[in-house]
């Protein structure tokens, strides 16, 4: 393949892609996606990739800036892949995500909601309570890097700060990198996962603060390395977990039995979880999202509700506070165990949980034969097409669909409306990941 000509060229940006890049056309008419450019701008761009139907480029210079352009807060923006939209006014970010959702409804599902819900937003900085840092020892720089991947995913970004990760964690990035760099196993640690429940007390001292780090290591750790990790955890109040192999090998190093938990005070609930469990990344937005989902579902005291892709019971247990009975179904057996434990922990007796792969044949599942009044589902990126095709949908009065991928939501909305006769009554976006191009959304369906 011929080398890419990286000579800067001038283009006018007409649109924004779903992943936050500007859209333009080159002089020959070919579409080009330009990182770091916004609609309405003229920029000088340098080509970074070539494909049959489009090119890729990055902004070299902004010749004519859009009024919505702002100065990125983070010095690493444009190199680190953690954010894609820090240069875009926050109010315009969420409107751009709303447009992505509506375009997906039209283009993929061939449907439109009767009502567009107001965007749901919360704190836009320091919100990320769960994530994964990549780790790489770079001999040429004689240092160990701990951070997110660069926009070129072959490399780890050399970051000193992060404004989207919780400050209790982000402020320790340089010290965390120094810790790993001083370990004998520094070349054998590929990643560090972080998670935070309700942060307690200060970020340092002997007490566990509610933040946990899980160290993935490819070789056994020496006593000196283990001691260094314990000392780091004690100094900053971080629980330290080790992961020498698969998920079942995760175990605490310090303290012996740390309690990881987050609360939903409006429903008088406390959720216990393990360090690699899925929890919603944005705690403030999560509480608002649950309330919105319940408002749309409109649960009645005598209702039986089916909650699919239930996880730890994030929606199931708040629902249990308001209905006669709720049944949660989740594919990961470990999460089902934790959901049951959380129901017992909160004194909830009207919530059942079942483990089932919701992308397979469900005809043998006992809950498929039971009667329900309403359905709530929060599927992964792949959506819920397989399970929706199997469910006896006529039994439900309402369906609330929480989505982390607008294309799969649009596809499933098309199925419900076009093939099953439901109405898409309302839909909207929720800013679970501010400054990124990730689109979280919610939709309400009612029987026609």
From TrEMBL:
Entry-linked Pfam families: TRAM, tRNA_U5-meth_tr
Keywords associated with the record: 4Fe-4S, Iron, Iron-sulfur, Metal-binding, Methyltransferase, rRNA processing, S-adenosyl-L-methionine, Transferase
Annotated binding of S-adenosyl-L-methionine, by residue: 280, 309, 314, 330, 357, 378
Protein name, entry field: 23S rRNA (uracil(1939)-C(5))-methyltransferase RlmD
Name of the gene this protein is made from: rlmD
Catalytic activity: uridine(1939) in 23S rRNA + S-adenosyl-L-methionine = 5-methyluridine(1939) in 23S rRNA + S-adenosyl-L-homocysteine + H(+)
Alphabetical list of InterPro entries matching this protein: 23S_rRNA_MeTrfase_RlmD, MeTrfase_TrmA_AS, MeTrfase_TrmA_CS, NA-bd_OB-fold, SAM-dependent_MTases_sf, TRAM_dom, U5_MeTrfase_fam
CDD domains membership: AdoMet_MTases
This enzyme's EC code(s): 2.1.1.190
Organism: Lysobacter arvi
TRAM domain ranges (all copies): 1-61
């Amino acid at each position: 393949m011929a080398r890419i000509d990286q000579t800067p060229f001038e283009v006018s940006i007409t649109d924004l892609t779903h992943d936050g890049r500007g859209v333009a056309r080159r002089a020959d008419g070919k579409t080009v996606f330009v990182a770091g450019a916004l609609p309405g701008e003229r920029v000088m761009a340098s080509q970074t990739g070539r494909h049959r139907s489009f090119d890729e480029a990055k902004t070299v210079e902004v010749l004519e800036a859009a009024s919505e352009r702002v100065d990125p807060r983070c010095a690493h923006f444009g190199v680190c892949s953690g954010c894609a939209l820090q240069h875009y006014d926050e109010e315009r970010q969420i409107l751009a995500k709303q447009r992505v959702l509506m375009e997906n409804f039209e283009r993929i599902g061939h449907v439109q909601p009767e009502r567009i819900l107001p965007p749901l937003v919360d704190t836009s900085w320091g919100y990320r309570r769960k994530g994964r840092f990549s780790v790489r020892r770079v001999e040429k720089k004689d240092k160990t890097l701990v951070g997110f991947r660069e926009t070129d995913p072959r490399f780890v970004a050399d970051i000193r700060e992060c404004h989207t990760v919780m400050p209790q964690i982000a402020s320790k990035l340089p010290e965390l990198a120094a810790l790993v760099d001083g370990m004998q196993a520094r070349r054998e640690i590929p990643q560090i996962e972080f998670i935070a429940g309700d942060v307690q007390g200060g970020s340092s001292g002997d007490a566990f603060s509610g933040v946990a780090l899980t160290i993935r290591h490819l070789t056994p750790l020496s006593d000196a390395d283990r001691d260094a990790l314990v000392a780091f955890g004690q100094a900053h109040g971080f629980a330290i977990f080790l992961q020498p192999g698969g998920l079942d090998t995760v175990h605490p190093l310090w303290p012996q039995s740390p309690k990881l938990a987050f609360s939903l005070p409006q429903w008088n609930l406390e959720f216990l979880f393990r360090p690699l469990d899925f929890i919603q990344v944005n705690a403030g937005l999560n509480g608002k999202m649950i309330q919105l989902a319940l408002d749309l579902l409109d649960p009645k005291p005598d209702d039986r509700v089916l909650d699919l892709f239930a996880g730890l019971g994030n929606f199931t247990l708040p629902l249990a506070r308001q209905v006669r009975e709720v049944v949660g179904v989740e594919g990961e057996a470990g999460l089902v165990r934790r959901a049951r434990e959380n129901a017992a922990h909160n004194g909830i007796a009207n919530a059942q949980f079942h483990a089932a792969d919701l992308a397979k044949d469900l005809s043998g599942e006992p809950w498929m034969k039971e009667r329900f009044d309403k359905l709530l589902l929060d599927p992964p990126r792949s959506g819920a097409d397989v399970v929706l095709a199997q469910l006896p949908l006529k039994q439900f009065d309402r369906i609330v669909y929480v989505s982390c991928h607008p294309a799969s939501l649009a596809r499933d909305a098309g199925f419900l409306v076009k093939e099953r006769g439901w109405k898409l009554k309302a839909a909207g976006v929720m800013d679970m990941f501010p400054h990124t191009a990730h689109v979280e959304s919610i939709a309400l369906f009612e029987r026609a």
